[in-house]
């Protein structure tokens, strides 16, 4: 890996990149979808992966041990919006790890009953809480996401809805997952860190993983960062990449390398593929 721009800002990150270069066939690349592979747009249904994302992943897939996309989206939606259907060697863990898509096969559990309760109660709750115009509910089957990006004042709208949504989540046995102008009510028990750890554990063998790289942009990705940090503490090299934005700063503070949004991530993946080929 000779490109200087692939250098991380931290020693631990550079150790991770060096280990990835040394034994790519046992390395794992973990990637978030929205904000990392796909540019953020106002309407969640219009989000699509960066035009270079699928090509970069397809170049990398035969060079590394595994590529796993870990997303809050339903797995099938990420596959569709990401243009991933024909990619071999890419696994998609959807709904924060509840769902799995691999080689065209989707595995999805039954949603817990609290999800139906939230679906039934949410319209009235939003009306009573004075949800501003532009508030939008995305029903993901296993979770409901309340978006405020299209409100005149997205942050104020989110602040207004936070307490009522937390109360609803508590009543229904769900948890609130905060994100970029969104509060999601989703089942507890999984997060992106759990999903990444489980994914690694199921493939465990001597020398695996040689390194783990994880790229994300939003608060939900911090759990995966924590998993990479734990791996490092156990001697497995890791790299935390932040797909930078002005909306979230918490990841940049913990990242080994910050790149310029999905375009920067795709550029990085392309250079990684060139370096490993
Ligand atoms: O884990 P991710 O792949 O990052 O998914 C997290 C949530 O992303 C989506 O919402 C975000 O992207 C939208 C489209 O760009 C944007 O409009 C919204 O403001 C963002 O919060 C998605 O809609 C959610 O279901 C995902 O859970």
UniProtKB/TrEMBL annotation:
Pathway recorded for this protein = Glycan biosynthesis; trehalose biosynthesis
Cofactor entry: Mg(2+)
Keyword ATP-binding present in the record's keywords: the answer is no
Protein family: Belongs to the trehalose phosphatase family.
What name is this protein filed under? Trehalose 6-phosphate phosphatase
**Which InterPro entries did the record assign?**
HAD-like_sf, HAD_sf, OTSB-like, Trehalose_PPase
UniProt keywords, alphabetically: Hydrolase, Magnesium, Metal-binding
Main enzyme class: hydrolase
Q: What does this protein do?
A: Removes the phosphate from trehalose 6-phosphate to produce free trehalose.
Please name one Pfam family that this protein belongs to.
Answer: Trehalose_PPase
- Phylogenetic placement of the source organism: Bacteria, Bacillati, Actinomycetota, Actinomycetes, Streptosporangiales
Keyword Magnesium tagged: yes
Its UniProt entry gives the catalysed reaction(s) as: alpha,alpha-trehalose 6-phosphate + H2O = alpha,alpha-trehalose + phosphate
């Amino acid at each position: 890996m000779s490109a200087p721009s692939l250098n991380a800002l931290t020693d631990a990150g550079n150790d991770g990149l060096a280990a990835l270069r040394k034994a790519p066939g046992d390395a794992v690349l973990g990637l978030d979808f929205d904000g990392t592979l796909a540019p953020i747009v106002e309407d969640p249904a219009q989000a699509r992966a960066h035009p270079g994302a699928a090509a970069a992943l397809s170049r990398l897939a035969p060079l590394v041990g595994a590529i796993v996309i870990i997303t809050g989206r339903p797995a099938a939606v990420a596959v569709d919006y990401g243009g991933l259907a024909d990619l071999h060697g890419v696994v998609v863990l959807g709904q924060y790890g509840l769902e799995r898509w691999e080689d065209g096969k989707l595995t999805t559990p039954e949603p817990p009953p609290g999800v139906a309760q939230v679906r039934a109660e949410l319209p009235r709750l939003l009306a009573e809480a004075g949800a501003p115009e532009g508030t939008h509910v995305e029903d993901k089957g296993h979770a409901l996401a309340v978006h405020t990006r299209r409100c005149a004042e997205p942050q104020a709208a989110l602040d207004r809805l936070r307490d009522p949504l937390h109360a609803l989540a508590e009543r229904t046995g769900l948890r609130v997952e905060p994100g970029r102008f969104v509060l999601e009510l989703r089942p507890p028990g999984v997060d992106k860190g759990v999903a990444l750890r489980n994914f690694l554990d199921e493939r465990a063998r001597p020398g695996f993983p040689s390194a783990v790289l994880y790229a994300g942009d939003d608060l939900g990705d911090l759990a995966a960062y924590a998993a990479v940090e734990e791996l490092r503490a156990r001697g497995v090299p890791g790299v935390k990449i932040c797909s930078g934005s002005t909306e979230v700063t918490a990841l940049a503070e913990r990242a080994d390398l910050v790149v310029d949004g999905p375009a920067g991530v795709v550029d990085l993946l392309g250079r990684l593929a060139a370096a490993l080929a």
